[in-house]
Amino acid sequence: NEDRERAWRASRETKLETIPNCEACTRPTPEEVRGWAQSFDKLMKSPAGRNVFREFLRTEYSEENMLFWLACEELKTECNKHTIDEKAKMIYEDYISILSPKEVSLDSRVREVINRKMQEPSSHTFDDAQLQIYTLMHRDSYPRFLNSAIYKSLLQSLSRSSSES
């Protein structure tokens, strides 16, 4: 069982590492990148936007927020009870446990709800926590992202290359 857990964790980490690179294969248009400044939802619905935002979060040492959010999104697509149990346990260990180096910042009420729900995990066990982290990224990191060199240089390079063609 521990071997299967390790293998799943390794494949998940690999998937999380490679997904953003694949997402970046589709180069966003200047209009799409400008749209990210109009709303956080547009940014988060865009695979390329999530990738660029994740790179920004990495510079702020808060990439775990995006990784947690992505893991919750992946959990919501699961139907198999056994897989849900395993993935929920991994998410808990990776992002909720106070012993985790990737622990996300949650209030005590949400932690209590998760602890109760972990008795019988479902694909929606972390919904409250996911919303709290989404809101944190929206209010805290997103405004800084829009003013960051990462975002501004991407916008500038795309605008330059589209005006050249």
TrEMBL record:
Entry keyword annotation includes Zinc: no
Domain of life: Eukaryota
Pfam families, sorted: RGS (PF00615)
Assigned keywords, A-Z: Cytoplasm, Glycoprotein, Lipoprotein, Membrane, Nucleus, Palmitate, Signal transduction inhibitor, Ubl conjugation
Family matches, as InterPro entries: RGS, RGS_sf, RGS_subdom1/3, RGS_subdomain_2
Localization of this protein: Cytoplasm; Membrane; Nucleus
GO biological process, one term: G protein-coupled receptor signaling pathway
Chief localization: cytoplasm
Its membrane topology: Lipid-anchor
Gene Ontology cellular component annotations, sorted alphabetically: cytoplasm; membrane; nucleus
Record function comment: Inhibits signal transduction by increasing the GTPase activity of G protein alpha subunits thereby driving them into their inactive GDP-bound form. Binds selectively to G(z)-alpha and G(alpha)-i2 subunits, accelerates their GTPase activity and regulates their signaling activities. The G(z)-alpha activity is inhibited by the phosphorylation and palmitoylation of the G-protein. Negatively regulates mu-opioid receptor-mediated activation of the G-proteins.
PANTHER family the record matches: REGULATOR OF G PROTEIN SIGNALING, REGULATOR OF G-PROTEIN SIGNALING 19
Annotated protein name in UniProt: Regulator of G-protein signaling 20
Native organism: Podargus strigoides
Gene name of this polypeptide: Rgs19
